[in-house]
What we know:
By secondary structure, the protein is mainly α. It has 16 helices and 8 strands.
Amino acid sequence: MTWLQLPKTLPLKSKSDDWQMIGLVGNGRTIYGCMALVLVATTLFARFGINFGNYSLDFALVALYILLAALLYSGRSAIDESMALLYVAAMGVAALSLVVNDGLSSVDRSSPSSLLLLAAIYLPFVVTLPAQGPRWPEQHRILGTFSNIALICALAGIVQFYLQFVIKQPWLFDFTPWIPEALQGPSGYNTVIEVGDLYKSNGFFLREPSGFSFVVALAIIIELTSTRRWWRIATFGFALLLTYSGTGVLALIIGLTFPISRKSILRLAVLSAVAFLLVVVLGDALNLSITANRVTEVESDRSSGYIRYIAPMSVVLGSIDTDPWAALLGHGPGSIQRTAQGFEFFDPTWAKLIFEYGVAGGGIFTAMILYALHRSPIRFQLKAVLFGSWLVMGGHLLSPENVSTLYVLAAVWRPGAERTQRSLGETR
């Protein structure tokens, strides 16, 4: 019995074609293994990387390029020429922003290394893989793999939360010191967060509770749009409660809302009713009033919600006209982290794009991600969640974990060969 049910009948010529198509032999198995490696790198191995001292290369980016090499070698991948043009245009604007700010700005805060990282993270989007068959079983299989990995994280997160009553050791919420220094990933994450007298669950493997909450929320949407294994959905939902994070709740709302219809309104009504019952039944036991209060916390300038969603707007509006070219080209790659402000703020993707690359660069990068999701055959609900996460739920513009997940689950797939795409297998 498979983890994720596949269509029983597929229009294939032979049994060997069947195995090749679902990725169990040959190039298919290699590609699937590399995709699974990326998903493992973004979740179970999220704390790992290649540490060079002053810089740590995220393991998710390494895994992404292993996948890219497998795609190029397989002969099944294709170059999307429209995406290639968007990528060149986006990187051209980013490079122009760097040059202009370096040559004309009185205080240049731009970073060439930030530009190189940007180019590296988004280059794979040019390469696509055809999802064969009328129901795209390969793509469904990788979604099932993500659900499996998310289940491991959810169970680990639940156990972690309750073990804190017994085990009073720092490694329960941050085992990074146990990882050899040469294999430690990037630091600076808010890993251990108090909630009353307890600590928020971060899924043990994940860096932050917010990241863990997004993983389980995305897994809920995947299950609701595929096999609907309710025991899994309940497990993911319970793990989400223990994160006390608004990120997963927002992801869940987006996934249940789009596309807007009578069904989506009914889903939201059911979600609201379930949330109300959980607060009534488990509110005191799990201190869920803290999660409920996250809805209104944006009113406080010291709250996480304000820092994530309100303060970035003030940063962008306060600096958009400081230089004649700032509105169009921004202040250069990496400059938002190097600009001092009189208040605490976060740098979500939309704010970082406008601040560093202006409306020109921000518009092209956003168009690139929208196009990548548009060409994908996955359900619209998943597209909406992945796009919302990339754009507003965190500083994900240069996040290999978020971008790699978006690429593997959605952007790499296309429903079939198109006239605008050139087969790499024909040119080797």
